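Write out the 3D structure for:
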Amino acid sequence: MGFFDFFKTPDINQELIAFHNTKGGVLLDVRTPQEYKEGHIPGSQNVPLQSLSQAASVAQPQTPLFVYCHSGVRSRQAVALLQEMNYTNVKNIGGIASYTGKVEK
């Protein structure tokens, strides 16, 4: 991985294809409840970053998790925290700000 790869953000639209093709995968929105209410990706579960210790309410440690936030910063933090909590199949898919599909409110 090169220096500039650190700044590269995942393409949430491409990553959602992988989510839809992953049996048993969970789409995890780590934004605040208010942000989630304002619009979220259909089928996502909201577990705010500051409440991530409650992730077990939506997924077991071996569950494939696809994590997003607004821009990709909080989701990157969430992935690191989830890995520390022994979640083994966790992926940062970026931010909803670059999402081009429908949102639910």
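The chain has one domain: 9-98.
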